[in-house]
Design brief:
This protein is an alpha/beta fold. 43% of the residues lie in helices and 13% in strands.
């Protein structure tokens, strides 16, 4: 085949991909994901073809293609290995695993082999902290990695075995659920009364059909259900706002983009309670009058795609989705699956909506809020996986049943994703109101010196505050509980999380884009022993500026690793502070300051390089 005919054939294939999504520019992320999967990258000619078919400019297409980490403008290997670079993975032996992969494949992280067979790279938390170190090999997840396992993996892949064969040599014969659970253990350590215990099929949906939309919302409000993603907004109030909109075109969106490092409880619900999730979304649709829904699944959970698509197909066949659900005339509702592509910011609801619309995942200015003007400008209810599952159970068992669990202001149960330095990492479903100390006793974390509640955007607490309660009003969490023993370096943890926020910022707000870099560098100074007392005030002042001037939740919470450790671990910072000598600041490191100049000038300094010789 000549180069010209190959290019023409590629364009034909890309055109078919676009047609698969009806040349709809709002399905841009789906289109580009398929192009990436088929060609291993998104070339400029490919972007032009996509632009022609969808009626956009090439610049607009490139804006999407360049935004998401799992899309690439340069060729990737036929097998792309993404090593999870979370702090938990680092402490669990990531360095040795990385070295083993580099040695076996003959490439370093960030490189693609000369024959185009392999790419090796790091990626932030993939939701496997309870079984770290972990990695994605194309769409296959591998957990509990060791150097010995890596050697066997590399040999198999180099022999031409597909990544799925690493799970089972009969992977294609496994059901989607079997395939998912062979890859990733659920690690359910404690099943509570609401979500992880016995759940009757569609009892909540059937009960909802006997009620008016207003009565459904009344039940959700009476139950005290609040959003389980961390913000804790009253679910019933959100549904009521959407139901009262004058716009009759409404949407239900499930946020299954749990990208907060240390959080993996939705992963378990998606695996073990997918029908309950869809049931909850369908009840929400009944309550607010929506006909269309979107289940936004983070790209790191693509291994669950076949399972979720099977569940949606089964429910359509059973009359639980589609037209006239369960024989109820006029009750029409269906759901499409939207796969993300590696962008933490898409966990923010405005950015998630942008992503669903085929745009870069950038937050939207608020107001208006999604309940009045969300997806494509229409009223949109966005809740996370756990919240929709709770709603289905409330309609089944009643508002009072749910309200009576937990504590004042925090009703029902909560799924806690526990990882780090403990004996029993995994998922625990427990009523709100227990203390951190009680949870540590359950998980085998008696040696904990610090506990991160709510992920890096949450709070790091010390031993003297372990009696604080896990509730919305005292210690709120979307689910993440990361345990750190006394062997861990608090400043190392803080610096890592600041580097995470620097990497994941969408870049729209200057204070977030630039300020977090300054914060990270300031923490590095403390670690190097170059800080002085004024730098503590600098950390606080800059953090306050970033929080005050950022337009989305990432910037408003990104300084939290610093602020919460300054408050709860002040001695860690003060121990690294050096008082100024002779009224001179110790924070300026001349060697670091001129390092870039050395590279640009391609020469060294006769003044500052002691070993310089003419």
């Amino acid at each position: 085949m000549t180069e010209g005919s190959k290019t023409s054939a590629d364009q034909d294939q890309i055109a078919l991909i676009c047609e698969r999504y009806h040349n709809n520019p709002h399905r841009m992320l789906d289109i580009l994901r398929d192009v990436q999967d088929q060609f291993r990258f998104i070339s400029r000619p490919a972007m032009q073809t996509v632009a022609d078919k969808t009626g956009l400019t090439q610049v607009a297409v490139e804006g999407v293609a360049s935004f998401y980490a799992f899309l690439s403008l340069e060729p990737k290997g036929r097998v792309t290995i993404r090593l999870c670079d979370d702090i938990v993975d680092r402490f669990a032996g990531l360095a040795a695993v990385t070295e083993a992969f580099e040695k076996a494949l003959g490439i370093t992280v960030g490189e693609t082999s000369a024959d185009g067979a392999f790419s090796l790279e790091y990626t932030p938390c993939i939701g496997m902290c309870d079984q770290a170190p972990a990695a994605m090999v194309n769409d296959v997840v591998l957990t509990g990695l060791t150097p010995n396992k890596v050697h066997k993996i590399a040999v198999a892949l180099q022999d031409g075995q597909p990544p799925e064969d690493l799970i089972s040599d009969r992977f294609d014969n496994l059901s989607p659920h079997e395939g998912a659970t062979r890859m990733v253990a659920n690690n359910i350590k404690h099943a509570g009364a609401v979500l992880l215990g016995p759940v009757p099929g569609d009892a909540g949906l059937k009960a909802a059909l006997d009620q008016t939309p207003a009565q459904i919302i009344d039940q959700i409000e009476a139950s005290g259900l609040r959003g389980s993603g961390g913000a804790g907004f009253a679910t019933g109030k959100k549904w009521r706002f959407a139901s009262k909109s004058q716009d009759e075109h409404r949407f239900i969106v499930c946020n299954a983009d749990e990208g907060e490092p240390g959080t993996f409880k939705d992963r378990v619900l998606l695996t073990e309670r997918p029908h309950l999730l869809v049931e909850g979304m369908t009840i929400a649709a009944r309550a607010v009058g929506a006909r269309e829904g979107i289940l936004y699944l983070r790209g790191e959970y693509v291994y669950l795609r076949a399972l979720l698509e099977e569940v949606l197909a089964e429910r359509r066949k059973a009359g639980l989705l589609g037209k006239d659900i369960l024989g109820t005339a006029g009750f029409d509702f269906d759901i499409r699956l939207q796969i993300g592509a590696g962008a933490y910011i898409c966990g923010e609801e405005g950015a998630l909506i942008s992503s669903c619309e085929g745009l870069p995942g950038e937050p939207k200015t608020r107001p208006p809020y999604p309940v009045t003007a969300g997806y494509l400008g229409h009223p949109t209810v966005i809740n996370n996986v756990e919240t929709f599952c709770h709603a289905a159970r409330i309609l089944d068992r009643g508002a009072q049943w749910f309200f009576d669990m937990g504590t004042a202001g925090s009703h029902g149960t909560k799924l806690f994703s526990v990882s780090g330095d403990c004996i029993n990492p995994g998922v625990y479903e427990l009523p709100y109101g227990l203390s951190v100390r009680q949870l540590l006793d359950m998980v085998g974390g008696e040696d904990a010196a610090a506990v991160l509640v709510g992920g890096p955007s949450g709070t790091m607490i010390a031993r003297d505050t372990f009696d604080r309660k896990l509730t919305f009003d005292e210690l709120a969490t979307g689910g993440a509980i990361v345990v750190f023993s006394s062997e861990r370096n608090i400043l190392e943890i803080v610096e890592y999380y600041m580097s995470f926020f620097v990497h994941e910022s969408c870049g729209y707000c200057t204070p977030c884009r630039v300020g977090n870099v300054f914060l990270q560098k300031a923490v590095a100074k403390f670690r190097q022993g170059l800080a002085n007392p004024a730098d503590i005030a600098y950390l606080k002042d800059l953090s306050a500026t970033i929080i005050e001037t950022s337009r989305c939740g990432l910037g408003m919470t990104s300084p939290n690793p610093i602020l919460s450790t300054l408050e709860n671990f002040p001695l860690v910072y003060s121990a690294m502070v050096k008082p100024p000598k002779d009224r001179l600041r110790a924070t300026f490191d001349i060697q670091s300051a001129i390092s870039d100049a050395r590279v640009l000038a391609k020469r060294r300094s006769s003044i500052y390089d002691k070993d310089f010789s003419r």
